[in-house]
Amino acid sequence: YEYSYNGTTWNKITGDTMIISKEGTTEVYFRGVNNAGTPSYKIGKYTIKVDTVAPSAPTVVWKKNSTSGPSYTPGTTTDTSVYAVLSYNKTDTSGLDHYEYFIVGNSSWHKLAYNWTGWTATTWNGTANVKFRVVDKAGNLGAETKLYTVKIYR
Questions:
Q1: Which of 80, 87, 97, 146 has the fewest CB atoms within 10 Å of its CB?
Q2: What is the largest CA-CA distance in the chain?
Q3: Phi, psi (5° rounding) for residue 112?
Q4: Is residue 84 within 8 Å of 60, Cβ to Cβ?
Q5: Total-model pTM
Q6: Helix (H) / strand (E) containing 77
């Protein structure tokens, strides 16, 4: 077998494994070569993504009553539902898979569905300390946001 990064210059694959470790997106062409050294006419082109870089922390915008409601300032007391609206400026190769949140006092991170970009505190009373992070499609855990204090007393 042979490989090429441009479809023109070909290199022999030694053994049965080829390692691509360059961070980012790489296009690679492959073709077979028979015992006489004649290359096949059928060429496969593949896009390989290598992503070992952790994503940056998400941006958090706090709202009351709904994701489009009035602003909420963490650390202040409210008697309404509180929403953390999350956004992520893609800075890695593989892209966003999902957001996670962690409430101090719990033992693990919890996944938010990819199509939901917010955390909601609607049914409880009290104070919670919460932080967020991104997990990319390569499974890299992103940087955590700072710890936010949410106070809801109804």
A1: 146
A2: 81
A3: -95, 140
A4: yes
A5: 0.78
A6: strand 77-78
